[in-house]
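Minutes, methods subgroup
Present: GH (chair), OT, SY

1. OT presented the first of two proteins processed in the latest run. Sequence and structure tokens recorded below as shown on screen.
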Amino acid sequence: MSKPTYYKQIIHTLESLYKAHPTYNMGRHISTALDNDYPDIWGVSDKELLTSLKKYEASLEMDVSHPDEEDLDKIIKDGMNLGRIFSNDAEEEEEY
């Protein structure tokens, strides 16, 4: 069996990205993968595109998911009330 072409590997990588991140469209994947290294994509070879997509895919796999907007608001509010939280903890320790 012959080695898949870069074109077929690109398609396979895009399918893998779609399965892992179904809310992201193809343009977002390609644009983000090429953003830093290739501002003008007309001259990008299939090999370069595949390499960029693989690097992008790896960076997405390492990325930690971020909390929802509601969770962020709660974290911010809790952070603003740290003094009260710590003083309550200190009072509870004194009771023992």
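2. SY then presented the second protein from the same run.
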Amino acid sequence: MKRLWGKGLFALLIKATSATALFAVASTVSISAQAATMTEGLVQNYASAMKSAANSQNTNQVARLVSDDALISLSRKGKSTSLDKDAYLRLLQNSWNQTSNYRYDINVDNIVITGSQAKANVTTNESWVQDGRNVSFVTTSRVTLTLSTGNAILLRAVSQVTIASN
């Protein structure tokens, strides 16, 4: 009986060590994945994906490009508001529901990369028809993008909005 207990304890110790080693390897892999760095290519991919999502008026695609922790600050004519991800998506959907011929374009420049984040100047040009009038909407922003599952997503935006109606 003593021999079996000894072997059982030894086998348990080996299994525990293997599990610990596996956990250590898994943790190292996880840390390595989290330590990935942002690139200008990922920033440009974000812009292309956002353009595609907006032009198709697909809030699910836009949602994948915005962090759950996002904060978007908008200013126009001295008035400001801040939106979280859900409020931003609702605003988009409500706006799209009230317009036709919606078009979206995005330009990114002055990209500064630090580790897993990038800061950039972003200019978006949106146009649509609402109540028979052509509307143009230009937003200039300083944004922070962060990495999520290997892609750049929006974390913060401080934006100035200009609207023109014809």
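Chair's summary of item 2: Residues 40-165 form a domain with the Nuclear Transport Factor 2; Chain: A, fold (CATH 3.10.450.50).
Next meeting: continue with the remaining queue.
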